[in-house]
Amino acid sequence: MSGAWEPSRADESNNLAVHAVVSRGEFTLDVEFEVLPGEVLAVLGPNGAGKTTLLRVLSGLSPLESGYLRLGGQSLDEPARNVFVPSEQRPVGLVFQNYRLFPNLSVLDNVAFAPRSNGSGRRVSRSVAGQWLDRLGLVELAGRRPHQLSGGQAQRVALARALAADPVLLLLDEPLSALDARTRLEVRGELRRHLADFAGPTLLVTHDPLEAMMMADRLLVIEGGRVVQQGTPAEVARHPSTQYVARLVGLNLYEGTAETPATTVPDATTLASGSAASGSVASGSVALDGGGSLIAAPEEAMAGRVLVSVRPSSVSLHPHRPEAGSPRNVWSGRIKGFELLADRVRVEVVGEPDALVDITPAALAELGLVEGSLVWLSVKATEVEVYPAG
Amino acid sequence: MSLMPDRAGRSYRRARPAQRRTAPAALAAPALLGFAFLLLPLIALLIRAPWSGMTRILSQQAVASALKLSLIAASLATVFSLLLGVPVAWVLARMQFPGRSGLRALVTVPLVLPPVVGGVALLSSLGRNGVLGRYLDQWFGVTLPFTTPAVVIAETFVAMPFLIVSVEGALRSSDQGLEEAARTLGASRLTVFRRVTLPAVGPSILAGSVLCWARAMGEFGATITFAGNFPGTTQTMPSLIYIALETDPDAAIALSLVLLVVAVLVLALLRDRWVRPGNTV
Q: Phi/psi at A293 (nearest 5 deg)?
């Protein structure tokens, strides 16, 4: 990865350093990353990307095939050196997706489970558990059984139970996915505060981009067992490197080859007509892999393999070919489908290239569009972002 | 386990009481015959029971000692089955090793093996000239066949698979995610077993124990082959009934009634909520 994140070497007392290689039949997970103490890393990826496998490896429920796993300089799993610290001896707390609270124990005894397992007596363990319940505002639930808890309460108890083990590394598996929308909102803010209080590295696995963006300091996107992108939420959102990420953040993303023009005047033959109206703007044309081309107004000259992103809201739809105006990309396509978003309609257009276009419901009605309609699309060169691929 | 009460079936009947259909004759007639076939012998026991001579029969010395031996031996067999069978079930359900499914099949062979064959197998392993029994005799001077411990051994051999099957099934269907959660919280394997696994499969262990005990109470073939039928030392209730049938048929019926009562009590226990398998309340 270009622009790969480099940890500050000064502060790695309790950092997590991972190079995880695990095979499951055809599937191979092979990822490498670090997380600093106090940092929250969100691992984002589609189903089957290897997120759960990664959590199992970190928590010691599954062994690595090769690579290493070090926490604060201590090796937890390193096949080459024949090191494997079993789950119960790792300073790792895991909050499971469906919480996995012990149904036969009260909330208090669930939270006291870890201190008990570490050899503390019943009374001491319960007092430790009581302090955690107090910190997370769960004291009044102490006597309840897990089946008497709401989803949000169970989530908090699961967090308290994991924290009561006094872990160095905290793992959360889709912490909010089992909650209904309203509870999710409430728990998300609260969870964020608790994660900020946690001193060690935190790794949060999710397939929800919003959750990742709001809770994490940094994102690690994995697909098919590989890291495809990492960076701050803002970086990832601005410059997605795969279709998956682009879809998550709601961008059109194209791969292509930048053609550095010999002069600042674009070569009209490679462009859709109307786009070469002015040669005064330094622009670069990108031949897209899926057919078609787009002109951008890059701040610096690009050459070779690039990614091009276009926001759906910056694309305009026209019933007829628009008149030549400012430098813009114009092409035609057919409507494939509509999706109603909160305050606008996302139109899927098939053409060269394909595009998602956001328009207002009023515009949709005015244009009288139906599936299969022929439309013209236009984008200003200044709305086209070009950045190096990979 | 077909012997377990069908929870789903009960709730279905409860949920739709109005749906009562008449059975077609082709099914109703054999079904009636089947009911009669199963119930008539039991009713006959009640009809032919020598109610007036009951106290005389049941107060005999041989009866008292046979009943005592049966109760003690069946209970001991259940205890040994618990001590050995629950770990066996855990290994079969939780460990990964080659030949596991073959081992599981072998362990449950006594379920379908004719008990007499089980007795012969015990003789050839633990008998005076048996594979292992030979050395027990030579080195320790211990001979097992035709002793009271032999009764317990025979009953354990035949009854333990009932417990294993019941517990193993429960272990395999129980939520292993909870065990994983316990491990991430620092619990050793033994603590996980004690604090998470056992509570989860407790009801199934209880149900399996009751089945195991009932099977041991009724054990006849393996016991009489391996332990014999000596009054006072190896004569259990079933063995006594078998002898009595030749000398005193009334006594045989009376004793059979006693075992029938025991069986009904066991069924009542199994149907009761607290030993229903899979019940975690």
A: -150, 160
Whether A103 and chain B come into contact, CB under 8 Å, resolves to yes
Task: For residue range A334-372, list pLDDT tens digits in order.
Answer: 888 888 877 888 888 888 888 888 888 888 888 888 888
State ipTM. Answer: 0.73
Whether the predicted pLDDT of B270 surpasses 80: no
The CATH number given to whatever domain includes residue B105 is: 1.10.3720.10
Residue A118: list chain B partners with CB under 8 A.
186
Q: How many domains does chain B have?
A: 1
Q: How many contacts does A have with B, using Cβ atoms within 8 A?
A: 64
Res. A208 pLDDT band, cuts 50 70 90:
confident
Set of chain A residues whose Cβ sits within 8 Å of the Cβ of B189: 88
CATH topology (fold) of A16-101+149-247? Rossmann fold (3.40.50)
Cα dihedral value A47, A53, A59, A64, nearest 10: -160
- Identify the CA nearest to A353 among candidates A371, A331, A323, A379: A331
Residue A104 near chain B (CB below 8 Å): yes
Question: Using one digit for the tens of pLDDT, what is the confidence trace for B155-194?
Answer: 999 999 999 999 999 999 988 899 999 999 999 999 999 9
Among A88, A125, A203, most B C-beta atoms within 10 A, so best to mutate, is: A88
Contact A60 B178 (CB under 8 A): no
Region of poorest pLDDT, from A151-160, B1-10, B173-182, B235-244: B1-10
Report, in this order, helix, strand and coil percent for chain A, each rounded to 5: 30, 30, 40
Q: How many CB atoms lie within 10 A of CB B105?
A: 9
- Given an 8 Å threshold on Cβ–Cβ distance, is B182 in contact with A102? yes
Residue spans of the domains in chain A: they are 16-101+149-247, 250-388
Domain A250-388, CATH among 2.40.50.100, 3.90.1720.10, 2.30.30.30, 3.30.450.90: 2.40.50.100
**Buried-state track A201-233, b at ≥16 Cβ within 10 A, e below 16:** bbbbbbbbbebbbebbbbbbbbbbbebbbbbeb
